[in-house]
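ARCHIVE CARD
CATEGORY: sequence design from structure
SOURCE FIELD: tokenized fold
FIELD CONTENT:
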């Protein structure tokens, strides 16, 4: 109703939105600081809709767009749908946005590749840079006779280097007079520092709007996100949580007080710790003064049992269990060996590694379909029609799948790969087969140190395949557990946050629920 009184959260949100609008009207860059539950994405979308209404036709006539850079594909799709895919707005992830700009400058890219000191061996093995086409698709660095493919991490770094050149900064500003960055605190550090150095400090370039919360950054160290020399706007609203939780958040973070949507809502926030534990604690490179894994699991299980007895619904639809690191979650879920192999969690959490992607997208769905008797779906996943012409063919398929199931549950990744190479049910993905061939050519000799991808593949072969099953279950959301970044913006009736790793000498569990 138009005459209805605004809630405290709505009043705070309206005040912040007015400040965002004022910055856009005056051509000033800004940083909207919005804590969890504040409606940060809503503010960003409202600003985009206002720009479409007021400047959309003029932007399109000038051949310009407002760029909206997101942290994930999920966020990109959400925002693009909210603005109905308007042609005056380009919504892309940092990698897609940067590559669309970078790909125009092949000669510059080849020069940047030639200057990569840590890739000289691979460049030499691939026959040098020359005049080869530079591409970006699968996210792994490689050089062959015709092309150079860039890794994921190369894209924002190359973008940052181009922003160091005046002509490229001017070209970017000409194409995108306004740039919004969603979850700015998680955006690549090199890219953000280049924006600050060459645009913010210089007071020139496009109008840049940062939307996020520096408290939720995945970066550590000296990257001070709160000190960008642009106008800061605090959005002091919380539409997600009840007063008991918001009051706790305000005590933790008094510089950004939040206002609730429903002052009368009922809920609770509790903290459980293990400071009284007298047994041996951890002392490793990744964990100091924490509970041993088995003790921690027993403690968490006991507490979850207590919460359930108190009336908590622990189903994955009602409760989310957040763990701050993939290593802690992997230990809990049972795929810790995989996390030790890969430096970047994206390799397994986002299926960037081709072998894990093959297992997650083909082998595991095929095995599930076989177990449920959905043979048509199984063959569809395999990508080809079955050559079943006799009863013997049928028995052969049955034996292959039964053996695969036994190896999945009791064998290693290498056992499964060897079985699939023999049966080709399903065929190994091309990139996986290539790695298998490279290992075979070594004839048991150690993998050269510079062949990092092949070394990881060799290590992965020794991992029990059961860990892959558990990893896929987590990635597909088949567990109530998650990392904090995988559920940003989602809402749950109950949340359990696991704190570990010896943070300030304690291990604890924070619970919030109705």
């Amino acid at each position: 109703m138009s005459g209805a009184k605004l809630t405290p959260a709505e009043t705070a949100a309206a005040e912040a939105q007015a400040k965002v609008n004022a910055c856009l009207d005056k051509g000033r860059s800004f940083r909207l600081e919005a804590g969890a539950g504040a409606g940060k994405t809503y503010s960003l979308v409202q600003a985009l809709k206002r720009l479409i209404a007021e400047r959309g036709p003029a932007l399109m006539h000038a051949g310009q767009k407002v760029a909206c850079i997101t942290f994930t594909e999920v966020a990109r799709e959400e925002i693009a749908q909210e603005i109905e895919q308007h042609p005056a707005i380009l919504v892309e992830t940092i990698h897609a946005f940067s590559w669309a700009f970078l790909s125009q400058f092949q000669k510059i890219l080849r020069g940047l590749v030639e200057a990569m000191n840590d890739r000289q061996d691979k460049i030499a093995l691939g026959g040098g840079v020359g005049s080869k086409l530079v591409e970006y698709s699968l996210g792994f660095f490689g050089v062959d006779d015709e092309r150079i493919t860039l890794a994921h991490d190369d894209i924002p770094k190359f973008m940052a280097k181009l922003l160091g050149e005046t002509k490229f900064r001017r070209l970017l500003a000409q194409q995108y007079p306004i740039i919004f960055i969603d979850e700015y605190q998680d955006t690549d550090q090199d890219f953000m520092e280049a924006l600050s150095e060459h645009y913010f400090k210089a007071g020139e370039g496009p109008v840049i709007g940062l939307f996020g919360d520096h408290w939720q950054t995945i970066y550590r160290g000296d990257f001070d996100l709160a000190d960008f020399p642009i106008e800061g706007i605090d959005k002091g609203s919380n539409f997600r949580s009840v007063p008991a939780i918001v009051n706790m958040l305000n005590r933790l973070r008094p510089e950004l007080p939040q206002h609730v949507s429903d002052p009368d809502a009922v809920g609770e926030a509790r903290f459980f710790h293990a400071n009284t534990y007298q047994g041996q604690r951890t002392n490793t490179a990744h964990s100091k003064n924490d509970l041993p894994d088995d003790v921690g699991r027993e403690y968490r299980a006991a507490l979850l049992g207590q919460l359930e007895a108190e009336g908590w619904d622990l189903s994955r639809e009602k409760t989310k269990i957040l763990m701050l690191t993939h290593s802690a979650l992997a230990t809990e879920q049972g795929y810790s060996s995989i996390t030790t192999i890969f430096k970047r969690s994206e390799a397994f959490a986002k299926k960037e590694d081709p072998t894990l992607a093959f297992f997650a997208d083909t082998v595991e769905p095929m095995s599930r379909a076989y177990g449920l008797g959905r043979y048509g779906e199984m063959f569809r996943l395999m990508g080809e029609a079955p050559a079943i012409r006799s009863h013997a063919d049928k028995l052969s398929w049955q034996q292959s799948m039964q053996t695969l199931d036994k190896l999945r549950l009791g064998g290693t990744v290498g056992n499964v790969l060897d079985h699939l190479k023999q049966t080709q049910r399903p065929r190994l993905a091309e990139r996986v087969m290539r790695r298998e061939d490279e290992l075979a050519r070594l004839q048991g000799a150690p993998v050269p140190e510079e062949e990092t991808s092949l070394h990881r593949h060799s290590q992965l072969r020794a991992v029990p395949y059961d860990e892959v099953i558990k990893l896929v279950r987590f990635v597909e959301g088949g567990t109530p557990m998650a990392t904090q970044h995988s559920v940003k913006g989602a809402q749950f009736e109950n949340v359990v946050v696991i704190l570990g790793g010896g943070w300030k000498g304690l291990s604890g569990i924070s619970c919030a629920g109705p």
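CARD ANNOTATION: Residues 346-475 form one domain. Confidence is low (pLDDT under 50) at residues 480-487, 501-508.
SHELF: design records, drawer C
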